[in-house]
Amino acid sequence: MKAFTRGWIVLMLLAFTLPGISHAQATNLAGKWRITWLASGKPVANPNTINLTESASVGKMTNLSGTFIADDGEKCAVTGHKSNDTDRQLDMSVTCATWSISITGTVAVDGQRINGGYTVHYPNGPSLGDYVMDKIICMLPEGCNN
């Protein structure tokens, strides 16, 4: 009976402490991402690549920076931030020579996908849409060159 009681106590402690431990772990967005532009849930253009790094957290926000690689190979600056609380919100800006993109979204709990909306700011006016961003997981020791 003692073993049952100890087992029950351990089980209860785990049940109440594991959610707090998993909630305390912030999702790290550093790495290579593939962003797919959508219309009515279907891809409308070639996916692009975004390489992100995270810098110091300030309160409930983590700063992001990186590089966006456009269809023509142009490399554009990425800046933004993500919230470290339960809403997992993402706000980023891509700034290129003659245009820019404002991106907002929600980071999945596992940190492997981001869904949201964007506005492209062209010289002749804005364009709106949705996107999905998937983290590129590389298992090769020499790295991913895609």
Describe this structure in words.
This protein has 146 residues and is α+β, with helices and mostly antiparallel strands. It has one domain: Quinohemoprotein amine dehydrogenase alpha subunit, domain 2 (Lipocalin, Beta Barrel). It is 16% helix and 52% strand. It is built from one helix and nine strands, in the order αβββββββββ. An eight-stranded antiparallel β-barrel has the order 1-3-4-5-6-7-8-9. The longest helix is centred in the N-terminal third of the chain and has 23 residues. About 10% of the residues have low confidence.
Structure summary:
The chain is of the alpha+beta class. 16% of the residues lie in helices and 52% in strands.
Q: Main attributes?
A:
146 residues; alpha+beta; Lipocalin; 1 helix; 9 strands; 16% helix
Number of domains: 1
CATH architecture: Beta Barrel
Helix and strand string, N-terminal first? HEEEEEEEEE
Report the major sheet: 8 strands, antiparallel, barrel
Q: Tell me the radius of gyration.
A: 20 Å
CATH homologous superfamily, by name?
A: Quinohemoprotein amine dehydrogenase alpha subunit, domain 2
Strand order of the largest sheet: 1-3-4-5-6-7-8-9
Average pLDDT over all residues: 84
Question: What structural category arises from helix and sheet content?
Answer: alpha+beta
- Give the terminus-to-terminus CA distance: 59 Å
- CATH topology tier name: Lipocalin
How many DSSP-defined strands? Answer: 9
What's the tally of helices? 1
Q: How would you sum up the global shape?
A: globular
